[in-house]
Amino acid sequence: MSPAPLLAREREAFAAHRAAMGRDGALRDRDVAPRGTLLHGFLLPFSLVVAALRDPKLRRLTLRLAVVRFLALAVLASFAIHAKPPETAAKREQPRNAVLVTLEPDEKTGEKREKVKVDLPGVHVDIDPEHGKKDVIVGGKTIEVRAKKRTKHAAHEDAAPRDEAAHAAPPGRLEVLVRKASADWAILVAVLGVLSALEAFLVFLSRKWDDQLSFHVSALSGVLPEDAEEPTPKLTFDLRWLVRKLLRRLRGYLVFAAGIPAFLPLVLVPSAGEWLFRLALTGWGWYWLGVFSASKSAHAWADGDAADAPTPIRALRDIDARARVFAPVRAYGRIWARLTRGVNPAASTFERSPAAFLGLALARAVLSLPGLYLLARPFIPVAAGRLAAEADPGERFWAVTAQRPSAWTAEELVLGGSGLAGSTLQAPRPG
């Protein structure tokens, strides 16, 4: 497709979401924006937040959850900032003073003064390098001695840099700003890290409220909720959920690292090999960011074992079997496919609408900032579910279909008559 139609569809998606944020209930229409556009995936979570804040019931749930979490975050952050680190044994011990002994030749005779001996009440100094004596005792405590030999020109050599620094031009305003920014960068990173860790702890305890809000936002967006019934909000301390989340994170690192050997031959290209490798690795990283964004919805896992391996893996796995020279490549493709088969359903969902899920990945990056994450977390799975529903060829995930019978039961109305009535989604719940 030429750039002009792509840009036209992106502009249309932007206009549609701007209209959706300006009126109530626009997200109920499944044609609210062109499917498969980058801006549609990026703006969808923001449109869902605005739609939820306009709904009276969802506005109460959203604001109550956000305010309580923000207050808890502020309290925990204040404790973390003002807490004093415990004193370690090394800090409790007073550091030993170091005495720097400089041995210089006599300016008149050139004789080296290497022997020093002082005996006073409470002070004992006996330094004789010839006999291996380096004893300095003050008040009954032995003090470390470090001897340094110098020539008579060393003082002038050391003074020269200080003189040059004294006559050096003062730093400019830009240089001062750069130094200040560099000094403050470590503090900023540390603060963001602490806030992110505290947010993760709050989510770990209160994630059931996210599930409840996602359930209602799914109905607002016209997509099947992931739970058959409204989840009961409560505080949880589920270590199994935490272990599953950590294992999925490790699996994500594994599937990304498994593809790196496929790009190593690019390094052999003359002149441009290193740049080609970096570009390929960046594209591979964005591919999996899109897959992981799709995986936030249970709808992305609906295909289960029926989903095939991702396209790059299939290309290596199914390479011409008649050419023996490609046997190592096929073996690598089969091993690669085996390592990544656990994420095949999410990868297949992503490949149906890659631009939209990449837009959602960008939105996740923006909304992962401290403060925004607590507000947006319940809306990301719904946005991923909406994109999965738009890309699904069987239209299995819409809450309402055009062929809705008039005699459906209440349960069928909730499940949308998509063939899932009376059952729950057989998919792992995303973390």
Structure description:
About 9% of the residues have low confidence. Helix content is 56%, strand content 7%. It folds into 2 domains: 316 residues, no CATH class; 45 residues, no CATH class. The protein has a 4-stranded antiparallel sheet with strand order 2-3-4-5, with no helix packed on it. Strands 1-6 form a two-stranded parallel ribbon. The protein is extended and about 100 Å long. The protein contains 16 helices and 6 strands. By secondary structure, it is α+β, with helices and mostly antiparallel strands.
The proportion of residues forming helix, as a percent range, comes to: 55-70%
**How many structural domains are formed by the residues?**
2
In total, the number of strands is 6
Distance between the termini: 36 Å
Order of neighbouring strands in the sheet with most strands: 2-3-4-5
Q: What composes the largest sheet?
A: 4 strands, antiparallel
- Count of helix runs: 16
Could you tell me the radius of gyration in angstroms? 33 Å
Quick one: overall form? Answer: extended
The class by helix and strand makeup works out as alpha+beta
| Low-confidence sequence ranges | 87-98, 401-428
Mean pLDDT: 76
Instruction: Bin the strand percentage.
Output: 5-15%
N to C succession of SSEs:
HHHHEEEEEEHHHHHHHHHHHH
Features:
alpha+beta; two-stranded parallel ribbon; 431 residues
State the gist of this model.
The protein is an alpha+beta fold and 431 residues long.
Walk me through the topology.
Elements: H1 3-20, H2 38-54, H3 56-82, H4 89-92, E1 98-103, E2 116-120, E3 123-128, E4 133-138, E5 141-142, E6 144-149, H5 154-167, H6 173-221, H7 239-258, H8 260-263, H9 273-294, H10 311-317, H11 327-340, H12 344-352, H13 354-367, H14 372-376, H15 379-391, H16 410-415
Parallel strand pairs: 1-6
Antiparallel strand pairs: 2-3, 3-4, 4-5
Helix pairs in contact: 1-2, 2-13, 2-15, 3-6, 6-15, 9-12, 9-13, 10-11, 13-15
